[in-house]
Amino acid sequence: MTTGEELLEAVHGAHSADLHRFVVRLAGDEQLAQDVVQETLLRAWSHPQVLERPADAVRAWLFTVARNLVLDHLRSARHARERTTGTLPERQEADRTQAVLDGWLVADALQRLSPEHRAVVVGAYYGGRSVAELAAEQGVPPGTVKSRMHYAMRALRLALQEKGVTA
């Protein structure tokens, strides 16, 4: 006498490939076919009396169950509403709200600086220019640019602290 697992392994070996091809032709979906074959064999395992029938009766039972599972899927509301696609959805982007708000805070604080101090900070931090380049642009010595940068950063820090920004 063979056990239920041995019978199921024998049924799987004898019928799963044909059952898979049948479901793929019926449904036109490889993933669904794999799911249906797995569910069909699970149902056969749940009903061991089916596995003890003659081979032709077992095969007919398996194909009937698989056909019914495919038809149930095709009639379901899920199938009617869901569509598969080969393209991936848009990537989710990080929330940039805080960065925008921080930018507004800094822009407002920059407006409080004198034009000379603002020109040095903007040129160095946003323009990426060196002290020598800023000195040449503004027609002042490099030491003046460094001094303006020092006092501009101090004033900027105070302006941000007034707005509640802490270090």
UniProtKB/TrEMBL annotation:
Residues 14-78, 109-157 form the RNA polymerase sigma-70 region domain. GO terms for biological process: DNA-templated transcription initiation. One of its GO terms (molecular function) is DNA binding. InterPro entries: RNA_pol_sigma-70-like, RNA_pol_sigma-70_dom, RNA_pol_sigma70_ECF_CS, RNA_pol_sigma70_r2, RNA_pol_sigma70_r4, RNA_pol_sigma_r2, RNA_pol_sigma_r3/r4-like, WH-like_DNA-bd_sf. Keywords: DNA-binding, Sigma factor, Transcription, Transcription regulation. PROSITE patterns: SIGMA70_ECF (PS01063). Pfam families: Sigma70_r2, Sigma70_r4. Belongs to the sigma-70 factor family. ECF subfamily. This is RNA polymerase sigma factor. The lineage of its organism: Bacteria, Bacillati, Actinomycetota, Actinomycetes, Micrococcales.
